[in-house]
Design goal:
Elements lengths: L5 E8 L2 E8 L2 E5 L1 E3 L12 H6 L5 E4 H6 L3 H6 L3 H5 L5 E4 L2 H6 L4 E4 L2 E5 L6 E4 L1 H11 L3 E3 L11 H21 L7 E6 L5 H14 L3 E4 L8 H11 L9 E3 L5 H8 L5 E3 L2 H7 L2 E2 L6 E2 L19 H5 L2 H10 L3 H27 L2 H28 L4
Parallel strand pairs: 4-14, 5-6, 6-10, 10-11, 11-12, 12-13, 13-14
Antiparallel strand pairs: 1-2, 2-3, 7-8, 8-9, 15-16
Helix pairs in contact: 6-7, 7-8, 10-14, 11-14, 13-14, 14-15
């Protein structure tokens, strides 16, 4: 039998939570990082390679898949899991982020959003009901409500208006969602950086009732300390017996700080996008493989990493691949970065289980602070070199 969608809280350490989500497409251990596969692919990675890093769930995007290849086609071809050969859970973003990011290409009203395609200029209307329907056709394990994400900074009146609209849309999404064993619908908390708006959003979403709750409208340019302040005020207002998802976050230190505040799920394009541009994440901070100091360095990107970039190749070889414009370079660094993020969340899960989360988090933060100071000196030295 297909299991019902459920969340089990297995342990806590402070406000950090160790949990397990059961879905129609398999289980998910939390805290979890979800690689972003916007258009049905994690860029540069085969599905098996993504799974080999320890990834248990990936993310797709409703807006982009609506434009191409189209939800109807994906449905006819067996759904997104079969289409992209990813049998595990898939969460689909509703298109709400594009309400903000494509603000020059959309019109917004009570009924929904009319987008002008960034591909060919064609018009597409997405109502809350249509967004949920598209995600159903994609066979998303976790469907997200359509909402209005506002930029930062924003006037409180604008955030308030968007907040109330998002709550009305959330109720319509709830009504449109087709209940199936092992599938879920998540509501999205909004309100920018205003605690009273966040509280009102949380109360409204809980009153509607969802299988999980996301915190949206962050990682849109605000300082990290502001994001953490919002989480401190908001996360305790979300049900403790449901998963909590921080959308679009983030850097490794963002994830550690958010787990400390009770967040369970994360997604971000940063590890894949950075991998394509030559930045690798390590325990000792990020490094730019294009820098001249790596040209003859036979050491791996990270000594204790099990990804192919580190296991089989040197920094010198990766440097060469990027300087030569070879596609293998971005593939290998993307693989490394995804491995780094999965290793980080696995380490956090183990620390919560052992009751050592605070120590692990403090050590991680100290390493990153030291690396940031060191990086300034390295950048100055590299600037003085002739680029190899």
């Amino acid at each position: 039998m297909t299991p019902r969608f459920s969340y089990t809280l297995r342990a806590t350490d402070g406000r950090a939570r160790l949990g397990r989500i059961e879905t129609a497409h398999g289980g998910i251990d939390t805290p979890v990082f979800m690689p972003v596969g916007t258009v049905g692919t994690v860029k540069g990675m085969l599905p098996g390679a993504v799974a080999s890093t320890g990834a248990q769930i990936i993310l797709g995007n409703t807006y982009h898949l609506m434009l191409r290849p189209g939800a109807d086609r994906v449905e006819r071809l067996g759904g997104l899991h079969r289409f992209m050969n990813w049998p595990g859970p898939i969460l689909t973003d509703s298109g709400g982020y594009q309400v903000m990011s494509l603000s020059d290409l959309r019109k917004l009203d009570e009924k929904g959003v009319t987008f002008r395609s960034h591909l060919d200029g064609s018009k597409h209307h997405m109502s809350p009901e249509a967004s949920v329907g598209i995600q159903h056709k994609l066979d998303a394990t976790i469907t997200m409500c359509l909402d209005e994400c506002v930029p930062w900074p924003v006037e409180k009146a604008d955030a308030d208006r968007a907040n109330e609209l998002s709550l009305r849309w959330a109720a319509r999404c709830r009504d449109a969602f087709v209940e199936r064993p092992g599938y879920a619908l998540f509501g999205i908390n909004q309100g920018s950086t205003f605690p009273d708006l966040r509280a009102r959003s949380a109360a409204g979403l809980v009153d509607i009732g969802f299988d999980g709750y996301a915190v949206g409208g962050l990682a849109v340019g605000e300082p990290q300390e502001v994001m953490f302040d919002v989480l401190d005020a908001t996360v305790p207002l979300l049900p403790a017996d449901r998963p909590r998802y921080l959308m679009g976050v983030g850097k490794p230190d963002d994830i550690v700080g958010a787990v400390a505040r009770g967040i369970d799920m994360f997604d971000c394009v940063l590890p894949t996008r950075s991998g394509r541009t030559g930045q690798a994440f390590t325990r000792h901070g990020p490094l730019n493989i294009r820098n001249a100091r790596h040209a003859e360095d036979l050491s791996p990107v990270e000594a204790d990493c099990r990804c192919p970039a580190c296991r089989d190749h040197s920094r010198a070889y990766l440097h060469h691949l990027f300087k030569a414009g070879e596609m293998l370079g971005p593939i290998l660094l993307t693989w490394h970065n995804l491995q780094h993020y999965q290793d980080l969340t696995a380490e956090l899960r183990a620390a919560i289980a052992a009751g050592t989360f605070a120590d692990v988090a403090q050590r991680r933060m100290a390493d990153w602070r030291t690396a940031a100071h060191r990086a300034k000196g390295v950048e100055q030295a590299d600037a003085a070199r002739t680029d190899a």
